[in-house]
Structures are given as C-alpha cells and as structure tokens.
Design a protein that fits this description.
The chain is of the alpha/beta class. It contains nine helices and eleven strands. GO terms for molecular function: DNA binding; DNA-binding transcription factor activity.
C-alpha cells in the first residue's frame, strides 16, 4: 500500500468520477483505475460501486476513507513539524544539560545565540549525566552539555569552559577561615558525596585519585544542590563548583591548592547523527564561543 494510492483513492471518493479525478491528479484514467484496483485487491474488498466512469463509494469505501483521511492529516502535520524543526532561521534545537547548568551557563549561552537568531527555538531537557546521556543515545536530543568527556570516538566533545572546584564547609567549621586548603585537609571529615549517576562524581573522584586521597563518605546525594544543602546543615564537607544555585547561606568556599582540581564543561554530539540546519547553527555558535 503506497501513499499515492491513498491520495488517489480519496480524490476519486470525493469527486465520485474517475475522469474528473484523473484530470485533477494529472494522471491517465487507466493509471488511476489500475491504482484503485490494486488497492482493492490488497484490501480484499471493492471500495466503489461502478457505473462506467461514474463511481460511488460503498460502505467499505466510506469506512476506509474515514481512516485514511485521519492518517493523511497526521502525515501532513508530521511534514509540517519536520519543516518547522529543520528551518534554518526558525527551527528547533533539541538539547539536554546538567541540572546545575540551568542556573547560569545554559541561559547565558542561549541568550547570546538568540541575539543572532531570535526565531530559533529550543526543546530542552535537564537532569543528571546518566539521564541526559541516555536522551542523546536514544535520539531524544541532538546535543548535551555535560562535565563528562566521552571516551568513544563516536562522539564529538567541544570544550566550553573550565571551572575551578572548591572545598565547601559549614561557616562554623574549623577550616572555614582558611584562605585555601589541600584536599588532604579534609581527611577524616564526614564527606557529602555525589552518586555515580552525576557527571561531577567521576571528575571529583579523579582529583582524589591523583593525590591518593579517599574521603570518608557519610552521605550520597543525587544532585549538587542537595550536597550544598547537607553541607550548609552541618552534616559534612564536600567539593563543588562555585556556581549560581549552590551559593547557599551557611557555606564557606575554600580554594583548593592541589593542581588540576577543575571541572570541564563541554558540548557533546554523536558524530554520524543528522543535525538540522538550526542545530548546526547553534553548534557553530558554541564552537565559536569555545574558541573566544
């Protein structure tokens, strides 16, 4: 069953006349009649009662026409949606990003892009690294902004920003007045850790491994905001980026002397996946921002 067969069928059903239908469709009458006959053979029932060139839709034809009209309407809507998404000046960019980046980094990035292309829209998803990575893999988005550099060459990593990490302690903590500390200074302190599904977890663990330090984990949290909240409540210490959304009352942010205690923020895409013109424009913009 082909789409053209369905279009031909609906035209004949609407006009109730093969000659007029063939003229409207700009095909020959034999070709039109053959297409309708082939469709009826596939369905196993006649769709019309015939009298010469005049035809009348029978009850099977009416039943089928109702369903086909709905299907054709959905196909038309689908084509329109694809056209809207793929338009280079007013299309849609599907992107996912880490929760914490929604407080500052992503809004600023999109604001700058909208100054150049105000009609392009965004379909945004936010969550932890595990969630946004699965969205990229499933094709629910074309780009993700994360702190985890992919290991596979099937992905492209575009470095966007390097963010220093800080030791975070309660204001009443014995280390709170220090100008800077080493990660070793946190030895023996109850540590508020991130669960492994959070992208920053691997980054911080790598920093600990570099200096052969293992924190005394007392709590594990799903996201950075919860970690900051636990520290502010006096339940432990942690290592976090100093970003909007985490600057809670009751926290002391201490620079870390150890080399390489940093968090990389970058944009990731699958290399072989089709990107719409609008998405390509945003990708080019992100690359330009990364080099400036």
């Amino acid at each position: 069953m082909e789409l053209t067969q369905l279009e031909y069928f609906l035209t004949v059903a609407r006009l109730q006349h093969v000659t007029r239908a063939s003229e409207e469709l700009s095909i020959t009458q034999p070709a039109l009649s053959h297409s309708i006959s082939k469709l009826e053979a596939e369905l196993g029932v006649p769709l019309f009662d015939r009298s010469g060139r005049n035809v009348q839709v029978n009850r099977y034809g009416r039943m089928f026409a109702e369903r086909v009209e709905r299907a054709m309407q959905e196909i038309t809507k689908g084509k329109q949606e694809i056209e809207e998404w793929s338009d280079s000046t007013s299309g849609m960019v599907g992107m996912a990003y880490l929760n914490i980046l929604g407080a500052e980094f992503v809004p600023v990035l999109i604001r700058g892009f909208h100054q150049l292309f105000p009609q392009i829209r965004f379909d945004l998803i936010q969550g932890n690294h595990l969630l946004i990575s699965s969205q990229l893999e499933a094709g629910a988005c074309d780009l993700i902004i994360t702190s985890t550099i992919p290991e596979s060459s099937a992905y492209e990593w575009i470095h966007m920003r390097t963010i220093p990490l800080y030791a975070v302690v309660p204001l009443t903590h014995r280390l709170a007045d220090r100008e800077a500390i080493s990660l070793q200074d946190l030895s023996g302190e109850p540590y508020v850790n991130l669960k492994s599904n959070c992208g920053l977890n691997a980054t911080v663990d790598a920093c600990f491994y570099q200096i052969k330090f293992t924190p005394a984990t007392a709590y594990e949290a799903e996201d950075l905001t919860t970690v900051a909240g636990f520290v502010a409540a006096g339940l432990g210490v942690s290592v976090l980026p100093k970003t909007n959304g985490l600057m809670l009352d009751g926290l002391a942010w201490l620079p870390i002397d150890d080399e390489g205690v940093l968090c990389e923020i970058g944009l990731v895409r699958k290399r072989e996946r089709y990107l719409s013109p609008a998405t390509k424009r945003f990708l080019d913009y992100a690359r330009d921002k990364a080099t400036n």
